[in-house]
């Protein structure tokens, strides 16, 4: 509203049909089953126009006629439904030792959810270090290939692949820096496109926390909260930030690096090369290291999920040392979030990833610190919650990018058109 | 694009004229002098429509025919100009001891720029504490009344008054907290509207840093930078944040409280009640206190502008102690901005208010700390600069809200229509 770029465009009558197609589709997605007459009544479009638009959407396999009819005065009305069956969006996320894939149809139904371990850097797979970019990329290509085959065999056309990476991702899909993967300047979009042999679908690469907050915004317990932050916590800690219902990317796409806010000056070393970052102090691996110094060495924590389970077990048994570690971690999370709240005044911050399981012991301390560190009374109304989404939030958000495009009025292009 | 709220609306043909009026006006604002034929060629609207739209805009006193004509083939074309003469927007900012007013016409030309001192809380005006809400509000009403009289006498109609306050401002214009003014829960919009006796123009209240960044975005040296932050520094420190060309307000309007990021745990006390806030460590008053402990007591610094001038004088004379203070302040600014850059990846951060004069000694240290504290190489491309706008940036931004509305397609309603 403020900017010239966002100012009004000339009303081009040729665009009216595209806009109206999107309007009708949106109505069906929200209010199905509904009749053509319902659509005309709500949108203000005339009935002949609605019929023509619906015919177009049926041909594009986005809408179908249900067997239902509604009897009012006059002819029975055929009820319309979203046709979710023809298309799929695919989301894949990359961690140091695994690849996760989720596919959704246009109704938001989950079509598949896979997790595949990837062996580490050494041939034996036992080094504990992250797998090399080449190895991870080819693991992604393999998973994607299988998923696409599965979906195609089920009669689905994959329209979009979105790959989430825990790091700084440029607009062209190059991973500038992913310290938890040990990556610098990896042209992931290019390499994947080559490995997939010029696939017929769109391939995009995005920061994984950005994808996770899109999932939170669409499917989370606080869906559609306009000012919403999702904090990821796998090997690293990151934040996806939505303000006014829009994803914040920043100038180069490097926003949301919550894990690298300094919360303990001179504190422990972080994979990023600095000290005292939130990730190094209160990320899942840091928590594991503090709770079980005997098993966790200096390098990456092996099998982080199992180690977090062990931390949860100890906390459930009211192990004092474990609970103290989680309380201190919560304080540090609260401190980083206080800065975030002072700058952005979000309505909800959802702690995701490994923080979900740790939340019962971590959240109370984080809430206290957040309220104490925020100038607005009561943290400016910010609610700090555990995400209802699991570790595959980012993959879900990636798969849902197709739905985001649909919401934005961009209709899929079926193959052969 | 992501949200349902931002999704497509049905194309209402009744809105087409309003949209097209805004499109034509925008074209004239940017490209004047221009002919009706030029407008038709660029916008794709037909000439009869353009003529009708232009006639409407001339009647609304937004566009006028210039004396110029352009001779091409056929009839000479009358050239159109923006008619900036009929309307004015007024911006007023409130500080502890002064009120600043700026008026702009629709061409962005400055019509007036006033500054009025307001006596402090005691009757003698010598306490040094901030004036009471009642006293400040009536000072604002007096200044506004005089400005409106002056503008009206010059044939201008004031369409909008925007008042900037250094604090947390609710959407309804209540100042929830302004610690540098000592305000809590002041219904400023209501009180001002009463004091102005139900004025014929729109009255809005906004955080002053938000207004300053709107001025920076429109008139600054880095105007139209999509991801832009302006840091204010008068009695307090605040930030106005624009991301993707949109002002960030947050859930309740409490965003941008950069001055209350903790940059020195356990550091000096802040008027907000906490310790170690950026404002308490590296705000203008904190700098003055460190440079001239002999004159600055515990309370508010008297005549802050004169004191900052003295700091600048000492720095120019290469006074070691002063330069050290400014270097340390710069580090703290850089530390707070590193958190900001990690979260938001802005393209430009402009230091405004008193930081402009102090920038030669403060910026270098801030740049070093910002780069060191940011995970993205080189601060993620963020440029840290001194604002080219002065202390009245927020008042200018307030006056320009009328232009923002115009850019957003909202045409002014002339009186009597």
What does this structure look like?
2 copies of one chain form a homodimer. With 417 residues, the first copy, chain A, is of the alpha/beta class. Chain A folds into 3 domains: 16-82, Winged helix-like DNA-binding domain superfamily/Winged helix DNA-binding domain (Arc Repressor Mutant, subunit A), CATH 1.10.10.10; 87-211 and 395-407, Nucleotidyltransferase, domain 5; 221-388, Nucleotidyltransferase, domain 5. Chain A is built from 13 helices and 15 strands. Chain A has helices at 13-31, 36-43, 47-59, 133-153, 188-195, 208-219, 278-282, 284-291, 304-316, 320-344, 355-373, 393-399, 401-407; strands at residues 63-70, 77-82, 87-94, 98-104, 110-117, 157-165, 168-169, 175-178, 183-186, 202-207, 228-233, 237-243, 246-247, 348-351, 383-386. In chain A, the strands form 4 sheets. A 5-stranded mixed sheet of chain A has the order 5-4-3-6-10, with helices on both faces. In chain A, strands 13-12-11-14-15 form a 5-stranded mixed sheet, with helices on both faces. In chain A, α1 (13-31) crosses α3 and α8 packs across α9 (304-316). The radius of gyration of chain A is 23 Å and the shape is globular. Residues 1-8 and 121-127 of chain A have low confidence and may be disordered. At the A-B interface, α1, β12, β13 and α10 of A face α1, β13, β14 and α10 of B.
């Amino acid at each position: 509203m403020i900017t010239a770029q966002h100012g009004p465009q000339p009303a081009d009558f040729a665009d009216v049909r595209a806009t109206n197609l999107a309007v009708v589709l949106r109505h069906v997605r929200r209010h199905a089953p509904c009749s053509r007459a319902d659509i005309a009544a709500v949108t203000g479009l005339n009935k002949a126009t609605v019929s023509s638009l619906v015919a177009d959407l049926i041909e594009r396999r986005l809408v179908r006629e249900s067997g239902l009819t509604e009897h009012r005065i006059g002819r029975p009305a055929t009820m319309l439904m979203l046709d979710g069956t023809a298309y799929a969006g695919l989301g894949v996320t990359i961690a140091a030792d695994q690849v996760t894939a989720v596919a959704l149809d246009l109704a938001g139904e989950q079509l598949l959810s896979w997790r595949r371990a990837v062996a580490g850097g050494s041939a034996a797979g036992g080094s504990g270090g992250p797998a090399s970019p080449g190895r991870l990329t080819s693991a992604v290509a393999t998973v994607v290939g299988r998923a696409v085959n599965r979906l195609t065999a089920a009669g689905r056309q994959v329209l979009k692949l979105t790959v989430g990476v825990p790091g700084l991702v440029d607009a062209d899909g190059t991973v500038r820096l992913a310290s938890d993967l040990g990556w610098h300047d990896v042209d992931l979009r290019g390499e994947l496109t080559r490995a997939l042999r010029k696939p017929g679908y769109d391939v995009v690469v995005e920061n994984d926390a950005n994808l996770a907050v899109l999932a939170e915004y669409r499917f989370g317990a606080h869906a559609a909260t306009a000012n919403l932050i999702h904090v990821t916590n796998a090997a690293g800690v990151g934040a996806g930030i939505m303000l006014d219902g829009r994803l914040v990317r920043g100038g180069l796409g490097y926003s949301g690096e919550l894990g690298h806010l300094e919360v303990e000056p001179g504190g422990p070393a972080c994979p990023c090369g600095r000290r005292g970052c939130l990730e190094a102090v209160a990320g899942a691996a840091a928590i594991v290291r503090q709770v079980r110094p005997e098993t966790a060495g200096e390098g990456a924590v092996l099998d982080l999920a199992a180690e977090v389970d062990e931390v949860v077990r100890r906390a459930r048994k009211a192990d004092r040392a474990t609970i103290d570690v989680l309380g201190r971690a919560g304080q540090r999370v609260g401190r980083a979030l206080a800065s975030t709240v002072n700058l952005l005044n979000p309505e909800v911050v959802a702690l995701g990833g490994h923080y979900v399981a740790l939340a019962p012991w971590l959240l109370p301390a984080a809430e206290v610190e957040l309220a104490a560190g925020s100038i607005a009374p009561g943290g400016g109304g910010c609610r700090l919650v555990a995400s209802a989404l699991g570790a595959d939030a980012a993959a879900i958000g990636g798969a849902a990018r197709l739905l985001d495009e649909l919401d934005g009025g961009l209709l899929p292009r079926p193959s052969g058109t």
